[in-house]
Write a structure and sequence with these properties.
250 residues; mainly alpha
Length: 250
């Protein structure tokens, strides 16, 4: 049995509901301990609530309720002569998609006059607003969060659950090519909007965030695995964090 766009939407909304509730609970504990300006650890720990919510909803709704498997979600290596050939294919596709991301983002920045903004420069939101520098330990935590935890969480949520449900339904109605194309656009816009709602950007950055979401969908579609889109997502985040925070180390 496979899931629909409705099931994918339930997973996304459920995961974010758990994230919001978890973040509030963590803040309730943090504010009495540290005052109204909680420390660096609050954001990484709060994000883990989204990770938990994502895997909880996928397990409960898509696997137990809809009869899916983690392999169907996207946790698989593309079919090839060997595992290493499959991994190499994903890595190569992610590298090509990264070039596409850079070119496309440069065009969008020009068209929408986003000169001060670049792909995922909203990594600045990972620091409390009163903190201007990061320690080496904090830097390592940020690297792990944006290059491993965030791609694992967001690719499972948006590409594994939502995109696949949309592509199946729309493909059934309009044919597979239309299903892929429309689902790529819808998932990309949803990806951008949820980042804005999460406080990771401002409205004028939506075209860039949506474009990144679309490229991630295409990477997942053509790599045949979440591994490909995770590699791209992690690379974009990693480079952005290194560039942005490299000058803020203390």
């Amino acid at each position: 049995m496979t899931w629909t766009w409705y099931d994918g939407s339930i997973v996304v909304l459920g995961a974010f509901a758990i994230y919001i509730v978890g973040s509030v609970m963590i803040a309730v504990v943090a504010i009495p301990m540290e005052g109204r300006t909680p420390g660096f650890w609050l954001i990484p720990v709060s994000y883990l609530a989204l990770t938990f919510g994502t895997f909880f909803m996928v397990q409960v709704w898509l696997i137990l309720h809809r009869g899916g498997t983690w392999r169907m979600v996207g946790f698989r290596v593309p079919r090839a002569k060997s595992v290493w050939v499959g991994i190499s294919w994903m890595a190569g596709l992610a590298a090509c998609a990264y070039v596409l991301t850079l070119v496309g983002s440069a065009i969008i920045v020009g068209l929408f006059d986003l000169t001060p903004f670049h792909i995922k420069s909203n990594v600045k939101e990972l620091l409390p607003k009163h903190q201007q520098t990061v320690s080496a330990t904090q830097f390592v935590v940020l690297i792990i969060l944006v290059s491993v935890v965030a791609p694992l969480t967001e690719e499972t949520l948006f590409r594994g659950a939502l995109y696949q449900g949309l592509a199946r339904d729309i493909g059934h109605w309009l044919g597979k090519p239309a299903g892929i194309g429309i689902s790529v656009v819808l998932t990309g816009i949803t990806f951008g909007l949820f980042h804005l709602l999460g406080g990771a950007g401002e409205l004028y950055t939506l075209p860039l965030l949506a474009f990144l979401g679309m490229v991630l969908c295409l990477t997942f579609q053509f790599s045949g695995s979440l591994g490909g889109s995770m590699m791209l997502h992690g690379t974009v985040n990693l480079i952005s964090v290194v560039v942005f925070y490299g000058a803020h180390l203390r």
